[in-house]
Amino acid sequence: MLSGGRDRMGLPSHVVPNGSASQDSGHARLHELGYKQELKRDLSLLSNFAFSFSIISVLTGVTTLYNTGLKYGGPVSVVYGWLIAGSFTIFVGLSMAEICSSYPTSGGLYYWSAKLAGPRWAPFASWLTGWFNIVGQWAVTTSVDFSLAQLINVIILLSSGGRNGDGASGDKYVVIGIHGGILFLHALINSLPISYLSLFGQLAAAWNIVGVFVLMILIPCVATERASAKFVFTHFNTDNGEGVNNKVYIFVLGLLMSQYTITGYDASAHMTEETKNADTNGPKGIISSIVISIIVGWGYILGITFAATNIPYLLDETNDAGGYAIAEIFYLAFKSRYGSGVGGIICLGVVGVAIFFCGMSSVTSNSRMAYAFSRDGAMPFSSFWHKVNKHEVPVNAVWLSAFVSFCMALTSLGSLVAFNAMVSIATIGLYIAYALPIFLRVTLARKSFVAGPFNLGRYGLLVGWISVLWVATISVLFSLPVAYPVTIETLNYTPVAVGGLLLITVLAWILRARHWFNGPITNTNE
């Protein structure tokens, strides 16, 4: 099933694709796996890390869902929930990194599932994982760029006087228009050669790190009122206004902010065909992006929470920021000290740029997944999406990803409930795609798996099982009702959305795909 018994580093130069004499292990391993080198392999470990780190983007996830953390548990939920979710995510990342080292291809998760499931189950495992992965990625791009559009709307509101100063803000049609414009810019940037994208990715990583440290120090220092250490580390908010009173239940719901944020690190796997020495640098990109995100993210959470002294007011939709908690914290900190909230608006601009970079990197990852999935014939019109331009960029897949993400956001015009259900796939759907190859690694392939240069040794099975159990746990917990009594408006539609995706994927397999989709297709003989 695997070709791990061959010497990956000693493959003769004459079999390296395109006649290259390069001894880069990524070239050699890709050829062993049956693929030609079609994308330009120009990324360093730093660049590979930068793409995943920019998609995780703590400034994006924490800022976007800080309201959820404050509402469900408050400081205790956001401070300790981050460490809990982060710790288990490291296990997931380690398991993915080990598999990535053995199979460094742009297909990533779905290719891994095919190889780990064995000949009998390979096509179905690949099909299921691939569709959960790509739809989950599109949902991530949708939610990230939509959150940027909402933040821009809040910045406009605050810049024009705030909610209490008759400030102006756009309606849902303005927001969707801004969202479309952002996606258009992301598609344009991602149509550039990979060398330019590499620079953007490194800039994005630097922006996120510097931005976090600036904001975590600046905001509590500027604020005239600061919370005590006792409040930040021990206060538990039970006043959520949603009829949820059990403290454990409340804490679980507050975990969503943390787990939603620490997502998207599979980008390092999808970029491996463009990364030098991918069988070592791809895994390192996954692990380093998670660990560094956990560290800087916790610092950001602490800094912001020290400035969050009045939770009910921050969540109140009648405040100047319309109930956008972090925007109100930034605005109020500067306004209370200097009489003007301009400084806070500039700080929101720093966050906005980070979110823009996050969406940009997300489209990059989406397009590589779509490129690989279509290379194996799994998508409608696969031959079109698989094409690369003269710069060796899968430009058709780039624009497909932007278009699909825009279409997913259109549901917000009809109902925010429907939109939230769709983007819930960004967390649960994507983590299911993460867990499937890990599950196959610890079950069907537990004896046959041949590890690459990066491996967990005898701890691989233990780490894998912890990862699978964590994903199963959060899949159940994040599907629970978030408000009582449960009505059409308050129902958590996450299980409906994820279950619907599962049903459609399985039905498509039974009715049609099983007759023609055989899993990953090698192309070295073309």
Automatic annotation (TrEMBL):
InterPro entries: AA/rel_permease1, AA_permease, Amino_acid_permease_CS. Gene3D superfamilies: Amino acid/polyamine transporter I. The chain crosses the membrane at residues 45-66, 78-100, 174-199, 205-223, 286-308, 338-359, 397-419, 425-444, 456-480, 492-511. Residues 1-25 are annotated as: Disordered. It is a multi-pass membrane protein. The keyword Lipid biosynthesis does not apply. The keyword Membrane applies. It is found in: Membrane. Keywords: Amino-acid transport, Membrane, Transmembrane, Transmembrane helix, Transport. Its main location: membrane. This is Amino-acid permease BAT1 isoform X2.
